[in-house]
Amino acid sequence: MDKADKLAEFRKVIAEQRTPLPRVPEDEWEHVVVHADEIPWYSPGKETNPSRLGPVLQLPVKSFEIFLQEIEAGSASDMQRHHHESVHYVMSGTGYSEIGGRTYHWSTGDFVYTPPMVWHRHYNSSQEEPVRMFLVENSKLLENLGLNYRESEGSIDYRELQEKLKKKNAEIQI
C-alpha cells in the first residue's frame, strides 16, 4: 500500500468515527424567522442586569443564544463574567466596555468580543440616546454540556470590583 492509499484509508477511518451533526427536525422549522414584535423584552430591574434584554427564544438553535440588548442613555450593563464567549454587534449608539480592566471604545457598526471568565461591563456614553446591541453567545452549547456559569457583581465598575474582590479574599484568609 503506497502513501496515498494509506492516507485515504486513514481518512476513511476518521470519517467513520465522526459524530453526525445534529439536525433540526423539520417540525421545528416553523420558527426559522422571528419577527421583531415577537421578541419578549425584559425590563431593567427584573434581573441583575440593569439593561433591557430581548432574548430570541423562538429559534431552534442548539449551540448558541441570540439577544437584543438596549442600554439606556447614561447607563450601563452589570459587571459580569461567564464561561461562554459572547460577541456584541453595536446596532446604534456609542459607548465603551471595561473588559478585564481595560477600556475599549465602540460605536455603531463595531463588534465587541468578551472572552470566557473575564469580568466586563458595557457603558452607554450618550446622555440622550440608548445603545442597541445584537448579542450572540455560545452559552446554549455550554449549558447543554453542563458547563455554563454566570456571575454578576451588579452595578459596579472595574476598580470597585477589584476592591470588593480584595476584601473578599482578605476575609477568606482570616
Automatic annotation (TrEMBL):
<dbReference type="InterPro" id="IPR047183">
    <property type="entry name" value="GDO-like"/>
</dbReference>
<keyword id="KW-0560">Oxidoreductase</keyword>
<feature type="domain" description="Cupin type-2">
    <location>
        <begin position="68"/>
        <end position="136"/>
    </location>
</feature>
<keyword id="KW-0223">Dioxygenase</keyword>
<dbReference type="InterPro" id="IPR011051">
    <property type="entry name" value="RmlC_Cupin_sf"/>
</dbReference>
<dbReference type="InterPro" id="IPR013096">
    <property type="entry name" value="Cupin_2"/>
</dbReference>
<dbReference type="Pfam" id="PF07883">
    <property type="entry name" value="Cupin_2"/>
</dbReference>
<dbReference type="InterPro" id="IPR014710">
    <property type="entry name" value="RmlC-like_jellyroll"/>
</dbReference>
<protein>
    <submittedName>
        <fullName>Cupin domain-containing protein</fullName>
    </submittedName>
</protein>
<dbReference type="GO" id="GO:0051213">
    <property type="term" value="F:dioxygenase activity"/>
</dbReference>
